[in-house]
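$ run holo --ligand "flavin-adenine dinucleotide" --emit tokens
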Amino acid sequence: MSGSNSVPVTEQGMKIVGFLCNWCSYGGADTAGVCRFKQPTDLRIIRIPCTGRMDPLFAAKSLIYGADGVLVSGCHPRDCHYAVGNLYARRRLEVLKHFLPFMGIDPRRFHYTWVSASEGQLWQRVVTDFSEQIHQLGPNPGIGAESEIFEKLGN
Amino acid sequence: MRIGVFVCQCGTNIAGTVDTQEVARRAGNLPDVAYATSYMYTCSEPGQQEIQRAIREKNLQGVVVAACSPRMHEPTFRRAVERAGLNRFMFEMANIREHVSWINNDREANTRKAAELVEMAVAKLRFNQPLFSSQISVNKRVMVIGGGVAGIQAALDCSDGGLDVVLVERKSSIGGKMAQLDKTFPTVDCSSCILGPKMVDVVQKDNITLHAASEVESISGYVGNFTVEVRKKATYVDWTACTGCGACIEKCPSRKVPDVFNENLANARAINIPFPQAIPKKATINRDYCLHFTKGKCGTCQKVCPTGAVNYEMQDEIVTEQVGAIIVATGYDLFDASVYGEYGGGRYADVISGIQYERILSASGPFGGHIKRPSDGKEPKDIVFIACVGSRDASVGRPYCSGVCCMYIAKQAILTRDHLPDTRVWVFYMDIRAPGKNYDEFVRRAQEEYGVQYIRGRVGKVYPKGDRMVVQGNDTLLGVQVEVEADLVVLATGIEASAGARELAEKLRISYDQYGFYMESHPKLRPVETNTAGVYLAGVCQGPKDIPSSVAMGSAAAAKVQALFSRDTIETNPQVALVNERVCISCGKCIQVCPFGAIQWKELRGGIRKAEVLPSVCQGCGLCNATCPPKAIQLQHATDNQILAEVNALCA
Ligand SMILES: Cc1cc2nc3c(=O)[nH]c(=O)nc-3n(C[C@H](O)[C@H](O)[C@H](O)COP(=O)(O)OP(=O)(O)OC[C@H]3O[C@@H](n4cnc5c(N)ncnc54)[C@H](O)[C@@H]3O)c2cc1C
Ligand code: SF4
Ligand code: SF4
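-- output --
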């Protein structure tokens, strides 16, 4: 497993916002913690009831406000606590991913995935890989140049 | 708002890698924070008192606890602040244990992260509003899905407690796998002698409604008030008239029907009662083999039935049941041994599965309890058992231990030697797992008293030689290759999730793990609850286990239901969606997306209509909130403002 005990030590942390559904991925992150699966320290998790609650705007605003990366994770498709929330999320987040370049944001700063409450190891890998990717991309340079789109979305 | 922040040290669990004093100090500088401190064990009695004292002395209006996961202790702290007079929703948690202190040792980075998580929690709390539950009435009927030993135990316990029970079993008889077993470890008492009376109890209790040959079609509603549609499958026999006399079976001319109860070791008829002790003891026609249905020219059973119960026109019927809680006890299926081509399971008649051997041992089985091999009916002189066929093997997607095979192999080996003292028995095993009460002693008896040869090692190949089978493997303790010639090979096929387990989970809105076993709410502290309120688990549907554990779980689930039903009403969760009518543009998108039909139109004066949420139906997913174009509908306690406040606190 990549980086299970070799967490990249960085002088400067990155700001990664995580939006995790309460039932699966938040539980998966808890499981990873209970099992002491080591992870990088850049991620800050916001608990949402369901990825269906995930307004793409939350991710966009995070990146506009200066987050270096945004990670969304929910229940596996077909295993949504609310039956279909993650299916809506999948469509919306996929659209967002394609839209980010138009806002002048590198789409690699955004990732969405599915991790269940029992998949602590998978969560460790997701966090480690995504954090590594954001470290490679470096700090978010900001999208001030794209002010038109910025204002439309940021109101 | 006056906010208090309590940073828990959790002994050294948090304080070991997070400077909690520093986190509290930084929290003290945040807007609205009137008090911030760090405490050794915040969840302990004195810890909670400390919070309550601070609420009173510092006039706090909101509290943040930075500690373990809210999935662990949010309810604890909500109750604590409530006792001190705050609304329970004027509370937030920052998870600085599972998400910080336990996953990295970098004290400086951890401390920074913890401080930021606290800042986010405070930012959210500043937008929190008091929320109030309402009371809904509880329908004190319980549904049990699956009539194996776990479901039977749950149904009987609920019935004893005076509850109305609806038991839904997909097969035509209850009993599950235990009904197929001959004797049970570690006491070697007869399975049907201990299960039979319980099965009879089920039909004799006035307050148990049994739907056999039935499956759950759909489930709606929520804890206290579920509506379940049950599909009663057409059996082509009117069960109210059938007396179970068996006259039809005797005369049925279609005689080559696989006998599923006997694991295909014998033939049944197209009209059948699966076993003599079946409950209910009613006949069912198998359409695939019935000549009336396949060729359109038989009507024998209809003619011979003394009560005129046979009805070829019967259709599936949907019945609707209203219940307040559901216990799921759908058990398991067995691994398909033919996946291991090299063992010849499914290919050679004398390579059979453990459950087939149970049927061979059983006095009511295909051979009347005489141990014979299927190919030619000869008494076997040498029998080899192979353990872990489809267990503890990641290469076939079954890395887990099935938990019961080591024990049932020892049982079957002992029974074999009891029946046929001259027959030699070998067991190829990986490790022996016998952790139950009197279990290890039982395996030792097989080895020492009954002279069963245990060989530690994997079998490489099983192949026929003459009319016998050769089992080739290695003895890893002696480091030698071994070859055993046997008349009968028994594969201990592993336990897997029951067919259709995933589809049922989706109807119930409960989670399952990657193998299809249902997930309990907490692996240690909430073993029979699910994350869906009012839905409980019992037996092997949650994971492999033996009969005593399945029964214990059945009783535990029944106790949980009784606790739930001991009150006449339950509190609703007030974290539901709410429409701001002035902002709503009446587009109806929320009504379309809501998975629970919780939103309806409300007619205002002048023919205007606005969306309206039914709080008792809303489950709080927030899908409508993310969908609503003008953001008129907001999920309370997770509003746009609250979530964006967290984003802002971190990024801005
Ligand atoms: C060969 C063998 C020997 C064993 N010997 C022993 C032993 O000696 N001692 C011991 O303690 N344990 C033994 N076990 C284990 C034992 O069989 C299980 O622990 C026990 O049967 C579990 O009971 P259950 O009710 O959870 O599941 P099951 O017995 O599988 O019952 C589940 C029931 O639910 C029904 N069902 C499934 N899906 C649905 C659905 N969607 N809707 C409605 N109904 C449904 C099934 O038809 C079944 O009737 C043995 C197992 C095997 C394979
Ligand atoms: S939050 Fe909205 S979509 Fe979800 S259940 Fe409630 S009303 Fe329906
Ligand atoms: S989606 Fe929003 S605007 Fe449209 S009807 Fe529902 S609440 Fe009103």
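-- notes --
The first strand of chain B starts at residue 3 and ends at 8.
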